[in-house]
Amino acid sequence: MHRLSELIRFTTFAAAILLFLLSLLWLYHTPWGWIGVVIFGAGTLLGIHDLFQTHHSVLRNYPVLGQIRYFFEKIRPEIRQYLIEGDNEEEPFSREERSIVYQRAKGEEAARPFGTKQKVYEPGYKWLTHSVNPCHIEDPDIRVTIGGPECRQPYEASLYNISAMSFGALSANAISALNKGAKAGGFAHDTGEGGISRYHREGGGDLIWEIGSGYFGCRHDDGTFNPEKFAEGAASDQVKMIEIKLSQGAKPGHGGMLPGSKVSPEIAAARHVPVGKDCISPAGHSAFTTPLELCHFIQKLRDLSKGKPVGFKLCVGHRREFMCIVKAMIETGIRPDFIVVDGKEGGTGAAPLEFANHIGMPLTEGLTFVHNTLRGAGLRDDIKLGASGKLIHAFDIAHAFALGADWANSARGFMFSIGCIQAQACHTNHCPVGVATQDPLRQRALVVSDKSNRVALFHRNTMKALAEMAGAAGLSDPRAFLPHHFLQRDAAGEMVTGETVFPYKPLGFLLRGEDCGGGYLERWNRARAESFAPQGAYV
User: Per CATH, which fold does 143-526 belong to?
Assistant: First the structure.
């Protein structure tokens, strides 16, 4: 039944073939049959072309029928806006925003006529201040060194990398395209918590190995952490950094389960789990339960990986709990090499609606809090900060740098670059473009050689746009952005400066016991390295 429903998407093509054959029979009875032969023959040839062309995944999965989409794309913009785009508030990104990604991925000019389409006088609108003496950044391929004092194999990372997406959530072809694109463009690809698959290895791109609560790829049969398997996996030259996932933006504090029906031999091999059995990802880790234990686990992974950069990713929840981790860093002397702050606006293919919409801190506030806490504890210089959560365009990346990030990650942007049309069918296994599906017939629509090139182009053109934006502000490095480079409108529509809304707190203020506002000191005084357990009303 499932396969029958899948084949329905070929009915238009099949109908064209059938009508073409009937027209040939009709031609024996009347010369008027040539009309059907021409019309339906053209439809048949179009369907054959759609099936075997390599640039449009929609057409490979929906031959003939998919041409309707591209017909409307050629309609004049103002008509297309109402007929196709509409005003769908449920879509995380407008088609206008996605089209910029598509153009950059194809190497096309992402220019727009007739000025801004933003509502510049609405509360919350942000803009960048520019200089009358702009700079020119010759090489936009700027790198950041990730690795603290204890790291023996620091990594020179791009300022923009692929965020965590697991094999299993994404198709084999999607993983291959992303990783080969990362290899070609010289940037990193986060594996997600689903382990390192053969499609990651075949691509040859730099990997950030994400270790989640299921310890996939480095686990015992009972689901606990296996140091021997971890050491074996971390020894790969492809693995450049190790990232412990404490939580993710789309569903912080929530575990997950991949049903046994979806655990194929390839997924089982990557995750080190039995084929056909439910694959559980617990809500919390079993390798540590306190801030001190987390720090010691970080050191354990650093030792087992022979000094590769080790850090953790989290979506900020109870702010005091993060301060507990910081106090444990001070007490043990063990610092992570990096921390990735994931905003709650980050995406996933499987999150309860309430979690996706209402749990976790947005990136702007979470990044600001982590950055200022590390400044207050005197640790900011030792730890690099990554940021993720809808960072698709150069302006968003520049704003994250101004709030304290050292580099940015993107999942959705790179998904768009390999053809994602935001159908929001990730959880159904019916992705129309072969990105988020394990159906072999659907994922054949995604041609790896074509899409990997688009991944590399999207990265290169986004970095070029970021460099141009930094240059326009009179800066020679995008990492030099500070809050005062940005202005925004407050709730009353008045212009306010970035340092007013998101100020940098003084270095060492928490260690000195200074109250600099924002509830930092109150939470710091209640935080303890020995436990995450709450103390007092402030979280």
Answer: TIM Barrel (3.20.20)
Q: What is the pTM of this model?
A: 0.87
**At 167, is the secondary structure helix, strand, or coil?**
strand
Q: How far apart are CA 510 and CA 520, in angstroms?
A: 8
Question: How far, in Å, CA of 505 to CA of 386, rounded?
Answer: 19
Q: What dihedral do alpha carbons 246, 249, 252, 256 form, nearest 10°?
A: -90
Burial of 395 (0-12, 13-18, 19+ CB in 10 A): middle
Give me the phi and psi of 538, to 5 degrees please.
Answer: -85, 135
- The count of C-alpha atoms lying within 13 angstroms of the C-alpha of 41, restricted to the half-sphere facing its C-beta, is 9
Per-residue pLDDT reduced to its tens digit, 170-187: 999 999 999 999 999 999
158 with 208: CB under 8 angstroms?
no
pLDDT of residue 110: 66
With CA atoms as reference, report the closest residue to 348 among 269, 219, 254.
254
Count CB neighbours of 318 within 10 A.
16
| Confidence tier at 429 by pLDDT (50, 70, 90) | confident
pLDDT of residue 88: 46
Cα–Cα separations (whole angstroms), residue 50 to 344, 424, 444: 38, 23, 13
Structure-block tokens of residue 315: 């979506």
Q: Please give the torsion angle defined by the CA atoms of residues 166, 168, 169 and 171, in that order, rounded to the nearest 10 degrees.
A: 100
Q: Where are the domains of the chain?
A: 2-68, 143-526
The mean of the pLDDT values for the chain is 88
